[in-house]
Design goal:
By secondary structure, this protein is α+β, with helices and mostly antiparallel strands. Helix content is 35%, strand content 15%. It has five helices and three strands. Helix 3 packs across helix 5. The longest helix is centred in the middle third of the chain and has 10 residues. It is elongated and about 35 Å long.
Protein backbone atom coordinates (compact mmCIF):
# COMPACT_ATOMS: atom_id res chain seq x y z
CA UNK A 1 0.00 0.00 0.00
CA UNK A 2 1.46 3.30 -1.06
CA UNK A 3 0.28 6.81 -0.31
CA UNK A 4 1.28 9.51 -2.77
CA UNK A 5 1.44 13.08 -1.50
CA UNK A 6 1.62 16.12 -3.82
CA UNK A 7 2.93 19.54 -2.87
CA UNK A 8 0.50 22.22 -4.11
CA UNK A 9 3.27 24.81 -4.37
CA UNK A 10 5.87 22.83 -6.29
CA UNK A 11 3.99 19.89 -7.78
CA UNK A 12 6.48 17.50 -6.17
CA UNK A 13 5.04 14.03 -5.55
CA UNK A 14 6.29 11.76 -2.77
CA UNK A 15 5.29 8.08 -2.47
CA UNK A 16 5.29 6.71 1.09
CA UNK A 17 4.48 3.29 2.55
CA UNK A 18 2.22 4.85 5.19
CA UNK A 19 0.50 8.15 5.95
CA UNK A 20 2.81 10.85 7.21
CA UNK A 21 1.31 12.76 10.16
CA UNK A 22 3.55 15.75 9.48
CA UNK A 23 2.52 16.05 5.82
CA UNK A 24 -1.13 15.56 6.83
CA UNK A 25 -0.90 18.73 8.92
CA UNK A 26 0.59 20.93 6.19
CA UNK A 27 -1.87 22.85 3.99
CA UNK A 28 0.25 22.55 0.85
CA UNK A 29 0.52 18.71 0.90
CA UNK A 30 -2.38 16.48 -0.19
CA UNK A 31 -2.80 12.74 -0.63
CA UNK A 32 -3.49 12.16 -4.31
CA UNK A 33 -3.60 8.37 -4.18
CA UNK A 34 -3.63 5.63 -1.61
CA UNK A 35 -5.80 2.87 -0.17
CA UNK A 36 -9.45 3.96 -0.40
CA UNK A 37 -10.29 3.13 3.20
CA UNK A 38 -7.28 5.07 4.52
CA UNK A 39 -7.76 8.17 2.36
CA UNK A 40 -11.46 8.48 3.15
CA UNK A 41 -10.80 10.23 6.47
CA UNK A 42 -8.48 12.88 7.81
CA UNK A 43 -7.50 16.41 6.90
CA UNK A 44 -5.22 15.68 3.96
CA UNK A 45 -7.81 13.79 1.97
CA UNK A 46 -10.74 16.15 2.26
CA UNK A 47 -9.47 17.88 -0.86
CA UNK A 48 -7.44 20.99 -0.74
CA UNK A 49 -8.75 23.88 1.27
CA UNK A 50 -9.74 26.86 -0.83
CA UNK A 51 -6.64 29.05 -1.05
CA UNK A 52 -6.77 32.66 0.01
CA UNK A 53 -6.52 35.32 -2.65
CA UNK A 54 -2.98 35.95 -1.38
CA UNK A 55 -1.79 32.39 -2.08
CA UNK A 56 0.34 31.75 -5.16
CA UNK A 57 -0.96 30.56 -8.52
CA UNK A 58 0.27 26.99 -7.90
CA UNK A 59 -2.07 26.69 -4.91
CA UNK A 60 -4.98 27.85 -7.08
CA UNK A 61 -4.03 25.41 -9.85
CA UNK A 62 -4.02 22.55 -7.33
CA UNK A 63 -7.41 23.65 -6.02
CA UNK A 64 -8.88 23.93 -9.51
CA UNK A 65 -7.60 20.46 -10.47
CA UNK A 66 -9.01 18.99 -7.25
CA UNK A 67 -12.36 20.51 -8.20
CA UNK A 68 -12.52 18.98 -11.66
CA UNK A 69 -10.57 21.27 -13.98
CA UNK A 70 -7.84 19.70 -16.08
CA UNK A 71 -4.31 20.65 -15.06
CA UNK A 72 -3.63 21.91 -18.59
CA UNK A 73 -6.64 24.25 -18.47
CA UNK A 74 -5.84 25.44 -14.96
CA UNK A 75 -2.26 26.29 -15.90
CA UNK A 76 -3.49 28.20 -18.96
CA UNK A 77 -5.58 30.54 -16.81
CA UNK A 78 -4.23 33.51 -14.90
CA UNK A 79 -4.34 33.46 -11.12
CA UNK A 80 -7.04 36.15 -11.28
CA UNK A 81 -9.18 33.94 -13.52
CA UNK A 82 -8.74 30.97 -11.17
CA UNK A 83 -9.72 33.12 -8.19
CA UNK A 84 -12.77 34.36 -10.08
CA UNK A 85 -13.78 30.81 -11.06
CA UNK A 86 -13.12 29.05 -7.74
CA UNK A 87 -12.67 31.81 -5.19
CA UNK A 88 -16.12 32.28 -3.76
CA UNK A 89 -17.53 29.95 -1.15
CA UNK A 90 -21.28 29.46 -1.34
CA UNK A 91 -22.00 27.15 1.57
CA UNK A 92 -25.41 28.58 2.44
CA UNK A 93 -26.87 28.29 -1.06
CA UNK A 94 -27.53 32.02 -1.37
CA UNK A 95 -26.02 34.31 -3.98
Amino acid sequence: MTFVYRNANTGQEVPLDERDPCLDQLDNWRIISGPADETATGPADAGPARPSEHDNKAAWINYAVANGMSEHDAKALSKAALVEEFGEEDDDGED
